[in-house]
Amino acid sequence: MDRTEMRLDPLTEAWTIFSESRPIPPAFGSVLAEAKAASPFTAGHERHAAHALHTAHAPGDGWQVRVVPNRAPIVRVEGDATRRSDGFYDRMDGVGAHEVIIEDPGDTALEELPLADIEKVVTAWKVRMLDLMRDTRMRSFAIIKNVGIPAGARVAHSVSQLVAMAVIPPLLARKLAVARRFFDTKKRSIFDDILREEVRSGTRLVYENNGFTVFCPYAARAPFELAIYPKRQCPDFHGLSEQETAQLADALKSALRRLNRALDHAPYNLMLFTAPTRSSRPDHWTTIEQDFRWHIEILPRLYYRGGVELGTGCWLNTVWPETAADFLRSLALPE
User: Fold this and answer.
1) Of 62, 64, 163, 247, which sits with the fewest C-beta atoms within 10 Å of its C-beta?
2) Is 52 exposed, middle or buried (0-12, 13-18, 19+ CB in 10 A)?
3) E strands along 247-329, which residues?
């Protein structure tokens, strides 16, 4: 009989159904096979995004990393962040900021850059968050990286996005609530418990250095999903130290290169979750320094979400995380 199992994600309280009876071939191929149009982000095309919000220079006169406003932002700085009633409903202006981090002046992928250049990308994420925090309307910040058309990428260039919002989005709000409830009950961080269990078991560990642990989550939503947790308790990504910046660059490089080797450059979404600002309701965040920890999730996009997933809210996965992690650990990465 084909094995089947349900696993609960302790941080989001969402179920994943693992089943051997549904060996579904990937619906999406390698991102390397996608047709590539000319990129407006390549060096020499700065006129397409002339207003740079942050620049990290390369040796000589060129640049290595640029941050520019998104030309089609989903939220805008202009507007009123006050929530208003609309009959039974609530609404507000789409207040926030939407920026593009151009990770390389050429066509090199993030994970193939030298570690020093990946550090510049991580630093750009941090610098832009800190700058946007000066606007007291901004409540939450997220880094999103879409690779491949199925993952939502519109340009075949190594870029990530920073989205700031005047609200706390539902997924972050759920994680915050779960982390706070866990701490209230057990007087310790759920992130500490997850990391402790992953190290104790070892079956889902993929890579670690002195600052970060890369592992396949217990209730992985897709084959070869990865999570990157900092070992130091800190709710805010902008609290990253210089040493941790270098360690995160190393963890990102290893994680993404292993994923590429395992899945032949499959599309994926990378998502960085960090705590919201606490200026508006400081009394509400009494334990957030101890209960929440910023973290990264990398979700391969291999299939369409089907009716069972949309109708139940559960994820379907055909590869147990222990199997995925064992394979990822075994990969020998070229220098």
Assistant:
1) 62
2) middle
3) 268-273, 295-300, 315-317
What's the CA gap between 13 and 26, in Å, rounded?
A: 26
Residue identified by tokens 């999406």 is 28
pLDDT for 59 equals: 83
- Collapse the DSSP code of 50 into the 3-class scheme (helix H, G, I; strand E, B; otherwise coil) and give the result: coil
**Structure-block tokens of residue 6:** 């349900």
pLDDT at 214: 98
Q: How far apart are CA 304 and CA 25, in angstroms?
A: 11
Alpha-carbon gap, residue 198 to 207, rounded angstroms: 11
* Alpha-carbon span 215 to 194, nearest angstrom: 10
Q: Which two tokens stand for residue 285?
A: 């965040």
- With vertex at residue 212, the alpha carbon angle to CA 294 and CA 26, rounded to the nearest 5 degrees, is 80
Q: Which domains does the chain have, with CATH numbers?
A: 9-21+29-78+85-330 (3.30.428.10)
Q: How far apart are CA 234 and CA 232, in angstroms?
A: 6
Three-state DSSP at 230 gives: strand
**pLDDT for res 81:** 87
